[in-house]
Amino acid sequence: MFPLLALFSSLLLSPLVHCGYLEADQDVLIPKDWTDAGRVSPTEELELTFALKQQNTDLLEETLRRVSDPDSPHYGKYLSLDQVSSLVRPSDLTQKVVRHWLQNHGVTNCLTVHTQDFLQCSMTAEVAESLLPGSRFHRYLREELSVVRSSAPYAVPSDVHQHLDFVGGLHRLPPGGPQLTARQGVSKAGLHLGVTPSILRSRYNMTQADVGSAGNNNSQAVAQFLEQYYHPADLAEFMTLYGGSFKHQSAVDRVVGTQGSGKAGLEASLDVEYIMSTGANIPTWVFTNPGRHESQEPFLQWMVLLSNMSDLPWIHTVSYGDDEDSLSAAYMTRINVEFMKAGVRGISLLFASGDSGAGCRHMGNNQNSFRPSFPASSPYVTTVGGTSFKNPFKVTYEVTDYISGGGFSNVFKMPDYQVSAVTAYLKNMAESLPPESYFNTSGRAYPDLAALSDNYWVVINRVPVPWVSGTSASTPVFGGILSLINDQRLLKGLPVLGFLNPRLYKLRAGDALFDVVEGCHLSCLDEQVQGKGFCAAPSWDPVTGWGTPNYPRLLAALLAQ
Questions:
Q1: Residue 267 annotated among the catalytic residues of the structure
Q2: Which listed residue (117, 234, 271, 338) is catalytic?
Q3: How far apart are the C-alpha atoms of 448 and 540, rounded to whole Å?
Q4: What is the reported pLDDT for 189?
Q5: Which residue of 253, 289, 419, 479 is surrounded by the most CB atoms within 10 Å?
Q6: pLDDT recorded at residue 290
């Protein structure tokens, strides 16, 4: 949270009569790894995103519950984008007030979306600072990234305040690059030397016949941010080397956005190669944000796209996250509504749980707490943790990958669908849990599922690279598996899986998943917890969720209507 002194200073320096802060709890302190290159020119063109207040969000949440609960008569009866728009579209008054306010400042170059709840507007920095009192736009640099953000909190007139959730493009610097790591291994005769598609298929009981066949009725997607691009030649090379004997595609079906011309990114290459080899023969989309505008928030731009496209893949996997405490509650609450909008349309959103274990936030006075990540902590997405082979050179049973993100939200309450499972974990593990001061026992607990996240082979810039690790690997793997299950459901005339969690927690794992019961993940290096966060346990746990896929049995369980 920004210092009170900064708030009072901005109140004195800015004409804030009858104005209020939209995101008073947003952290505006600039991390040390960003360099301040100074104030931008008053004539610098900015692009800001205005999130207009939506209607009927309570009804939207109830609709999501009904279409996602397999015991509901409304299960699988998803809404179209037009129906979602009719439900949540901002009121005429909200649209009129916001547009009138913008026009009074000369802001007329605006684009809206199908659901009419976002406005993306271009204006100069001078106009933006007049429109949003308190804001001061600077350019910040980190390595090859350049972004324009406000170095101070912003306000809006009181008559506009009630009609907006937040304004995007002022805060929320891009988080650090992918936390993928390269762990060194040694060669041993007769044993595998890292995870490839054939190793995944062996472990998860998938045969060469387990590939997509529903054609254009089914598709899957990965989303990329922060100048991360895949190269088609890398994908083709990967499939040549590791495609095995199963039917697969060697080219992406559609790119949404513009592919950059720079070197391929490790994150993007990993995501595309493994969702397409696990969810084999299923058309795949890549959403890419090339950072065309320095004032864009890449993740927010992706969310806006989902609100504006009627034809979307059924499965989306995303390896992106930030610390909960670095984001405003208003921003996260609104993003949750965007997740609900996707869920009621039958879209499954899978997010990586992160690679920092339980995380650690230093509170001062030698006090620490665990640090949950968002969107991993959202109640409206399916979050994927990570595992390792017990023997890293054999296809053995899996244990916790110590980096696997997991824990309990400090912002969002525990959703009803997981109360029973999480309560059982807290009760059964009571004697070995970290002190309660480190986590919120009543918060949304994550992850929900897991898959291997350790020692992957990836082809990048035409070179096979070994020992790549991170939940950025496990997420597209599980996404591809769910795409295959969607494929079989579509062939049987059943609705796609949509928001999976309510159904997943009713499955109670059983034989549908490999239960991970060994290992702990990392956390704060202090005397209280000594670097250990939570530990795996029978059934659900906040390190590996319900476990990893046993494909034929998970397919059978999720084919049941």
A1: yes
A2: 271
A3: 8
A4: 37
A5: 479
A6: 58
